[in-house]
């Protein structure tokens, strides 16, 4: 499908990457990973034909179509959402017109045996088959299904695209891309502008799509659900792992451990040979053996160990005075823009030290609520109105990271000057050290902001935020464009932050284990959920099914440990029973994944032990015994959990 041979890209003296070769086969799902600035987006541009490599070739079979979604697009206004998305079917319309013309021509001809007539018939059959495969003239339903899946309401389809924010316009472009059904799909950070529900819809779409996929994303959950092969760009080289991302992380560590062990053994062998040569070089009786050792040394092929990028982001929030017990209180609050009220009857109280998530579909009011807080803190928001009670607690110092914070940086100054503009006091004497801690050490501090990748800009904007002491942190989509390692560092820093945090994010993996409370914004209201993000998503799915049951007036027989005197469960009993089942189901699934990982590790060890080198390595047997014991324990755990789950289901 795509064949890449000896690809190299160099923007300066040092190449971005070199000697890259790989093949993406038909229907294959590939994830491209690497740190910010490694060259992932550049490689996608080359595959799409929008950029030429310094050396090397990209081969794509004739007739194969490519769909490419870049991180940033130039958008054109003047159409409605429906009209813009319908441009995806321009090809079908032209082919349908050609079918009509050929049909009319054939109806007027009588030379049925001629070669020209046969070619027209063949062309008609080919076009008809293609149009039917693409949905024929019945594409309006698919158009609406795709747009609503990406978060649009049906009444919004006739709005002008000029009225939409950049994120929503990007959704229209993504819809156009999917509706064209390309043979090869190249997606660069497609989830950056999607909410959790739209991301799940896109996951399901990509799973069922027959196209080949090359994906760049820093959403760990998303890529685990949609890809089964991982290409890593690291230190200018590309390494191919035929595994999902989670498996790739383990395989990468195992690969390097094996390389290091083999390298050390080889170095010992080389040292022994050299020692023999030096000891017996001048002894005539050993001349034959010495010459043999010299030839043996020449035949040794040096073992290479994968380079590891040891640069590490150091992120720590500046110390700040302790805030009051309740940094934020909302009572009977309503807010909106202009004449339009987006949220109403908002009641929430956030305690000091809490880490909470603010989730909901785009446009429901998450950012509106955040802007109200910032307006109260002194940042004017033209057109914003709110009433009711909104209080910021005693001694609260707010740090706000906006969704477009990275785009607000001055592109025409250097990284150093960006920090120098906001640094004060003794901090100005330590700017170089601070930049080094944020992986902008050495020459990187002299780069212009305009040449930085999206992730590097986000990292730089984050550093500006951390220069002032804060005890209430508000993050609005902070992980957009951040690579996996940087997201993990940010997550650990927020966990360790001793203040209060409000996080607006669609990244399920980032929120998992970080927040203990979820505020759901939707339908003009805010609902509190005392759980983590995955428990919230499970609960939402069950609630939706419950609503369908009530709507159809066909309630299912509830499952619970206790029933009321009338033989029916109370709402609280049903809710508690669902929670128990969900918890056990998650535990069983986690146990099954753990068993699979342990079995894979055992197979890998057994393969190594079957080699001459592995048979001589005594540590492998010890590892095998240790993993076998872990597997036995996990199997017992899985059996116990499965029995508990089955008992609850049968009650």
What does this structure look like?
There is one protein chain. This protein has helices at about 40-50, 80-85, 90-110, 115-135, 140-150, 165-180, 195-210, 220-225, 245-280, 285-300, 365-375, 415-420, 430-435, 455-465, 485-495, 510, 535-550, 570-610, 610-615, 620-650, and strands spanning about 1-10, 15-25, 30-35, 55-60, 65-70, 185-190, 210-215, 230-235, 235-240, 330-335, 340-350, 355-360, 385-390, 400, 470-475, 500-505, 515-520, 525-530. The protein is α/β, with parallel strands linked by helices and about 650 residues long. The strands form 4 sheets. A 6-stranded mixed sheet has the order 5-6-7-3-8-9, with helices on both faces. Strands 14-15-16-12-17-18 form a 6-stranded mixed sheet, sandwiched between helices.
Identify the notable features of this structure and list them briefly.
single chain; 651 residues; alpha/beta; 20 helices; 18 strands; 18% strand
Ordered list of secondary-structure elements with their pairings:
Layout: E1 2-10, E2 15-24, E3 29-33, H1 40-48, E4 55-59, E5 66-69, H2 81-86, H3 90-108, H4 115-133, H5 140-149, H6 166-179, E6 184-188, H7 196-208, E7 212-216, H8 220-226, E8 229-234, E9 237-241, H9 245-280, H10 287-299, E10 328-337, E11 340-350, E12 355-359, H11 366-376, E13 384-392, E14 398-401, H12 415-420, H13 431-437, H14 454-465, E15 472-476, H15 484-496, E16 500-504, H16 508-511, E17 517-522, E18 525-529, H17 533-552, H18 571-609, H19 612-615, H20 618-650
Parallel strand pairs: 3-7, 3-8, 5-6, 6-7, 12-16, 12-17, 14-15, 15-16
Antiparallel strand pairs: 1-2, 1-4, 8-9, 10-11, 10-13, 17-18
Helix pairs in contact: 3-4, 5-6, 9-10, 17-18, 18-20
């Amino acid at each position: 499908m795509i064949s890449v041979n000896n690809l190299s890209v160099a923007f300066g003296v040092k190449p971005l990457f070199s000697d890259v070769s790989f093949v993406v086969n038909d229907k294959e799902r590939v994830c491209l990973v690497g740190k910010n600035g490694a060259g992932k987006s550049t490689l996608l541009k080359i595959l799409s034909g929008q950029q030429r490599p310094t050396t090397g070739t990209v081969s794509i079979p004739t007739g194969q179509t490519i769909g490419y979604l870049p991180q940033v697009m130039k958008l054109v206004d003047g159409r409605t959402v429906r009209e813009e998305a319908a441009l995806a079917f321009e090809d079908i319309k032209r082919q349908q017109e050609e079918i009509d013309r050929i049909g009319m021509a054939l109806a007027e001809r009588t030379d049925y045996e001629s070669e020209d007539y046969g070619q027209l018939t063949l062309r008609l059959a080919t076009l008809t088959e293609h149009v039917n495969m693409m949905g024929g003239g019945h594409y309006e339903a698919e158009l609406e299904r795709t747009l609503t899946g990406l978060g649009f309401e049906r009444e919004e389809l006739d709005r002008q695209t000029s009225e939409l924010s950049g994120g929503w316009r990007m959704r229209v472009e993504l819809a156009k891309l999917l509706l064209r059904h390309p043979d090869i799909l190249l997606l660069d950070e497609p989830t950056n502008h999607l909410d959790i529900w739209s991301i799940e819809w896109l996951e399901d779409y990509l799973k069922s799509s027959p196209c080949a996929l090359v994906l760049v994303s820093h959403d760990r959950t998303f890529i685990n659900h949609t890809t089964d092969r991982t290409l890593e760009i690291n230190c200018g080289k590309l390494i191919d792992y035929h595994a999902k991302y989670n498996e790739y992380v383990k395989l990468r560590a195992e690969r390097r451990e094996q390389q290091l062990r083999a390298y050390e053994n080889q170095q010992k062998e080389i040292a022994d040979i050299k020692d023999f040569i030096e000891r017996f070089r001048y002894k005539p009786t050993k001349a034959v053996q010495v010459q043999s050792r010299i030839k043996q040394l020449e035949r040794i092929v040096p073992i290479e160990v994968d380079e590891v990028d040891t640069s590490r982001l150091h992120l720590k929030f500046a110390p700040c005075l302790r805030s009051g017990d309740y940094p934020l209180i909302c009572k009977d609050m309503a807010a909106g823009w202009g004449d339009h009220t987006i949220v109403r009857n908002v009641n929430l109280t956030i305690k000091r030290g809490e880490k909470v998530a603010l989730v909901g579909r785009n446009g429901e009011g998450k950012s509106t609520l955040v802007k109200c807080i910032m307006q109260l803190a002194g940042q004017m928001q033209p057109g914003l109105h709110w009433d009711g009670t909104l209080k910021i607690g005693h001694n609260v110092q707010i740090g706000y990271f906006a969704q477009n914070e990275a785009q607000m940086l001055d592109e025409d100054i250097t990284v150093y000057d960006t920090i120098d503009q906001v640094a004060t006091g003794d901090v100005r004497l330590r700017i170089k050290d601070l930049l080094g801690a944020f992986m902008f050490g050495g020459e990187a501090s002299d780069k212009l902001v305009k040449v930085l990748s999206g992730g590097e800009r986000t990292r730089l904007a984050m550093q500006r935020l951390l220069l002032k002491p804060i005890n209430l942190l508000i993050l609005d989509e902070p992980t957009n464009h951040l690579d996996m390692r940087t997201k993990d560092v940010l997550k650990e820093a927020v966990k360790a932050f001793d203040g209060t945090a409000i996080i607006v994010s669609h990244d399920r993996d980032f929120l998992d284990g970080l927040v203990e409370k979820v505020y759901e914004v939707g339908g003009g209201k805010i609902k509190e959920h005392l759980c983590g993000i995955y428990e919230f998503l499970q609960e939402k799915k069950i609630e939706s099914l419950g609503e369908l049951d009530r709507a159809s007036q066909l309630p299912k027989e509830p499952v619970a440990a206790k029933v009321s005197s009338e033989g029916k469960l109370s709402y609280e009993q049903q809710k508690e029973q669902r929670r128990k089942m969900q918890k056990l189901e998650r535990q069983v699934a986690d146990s099954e994944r753990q068993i699979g990982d342990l079995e894979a590790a055992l197979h890998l060890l057994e393969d190594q032990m079957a080699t001459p080198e592995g048979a001589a390595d005594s540590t492998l047997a010890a590892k095998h015994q240790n993993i076998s014991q872990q597997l036995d324990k996990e199997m017992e755990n899985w059996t116990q959990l499965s029995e508990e789950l089955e008992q609850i289901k049968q009650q």
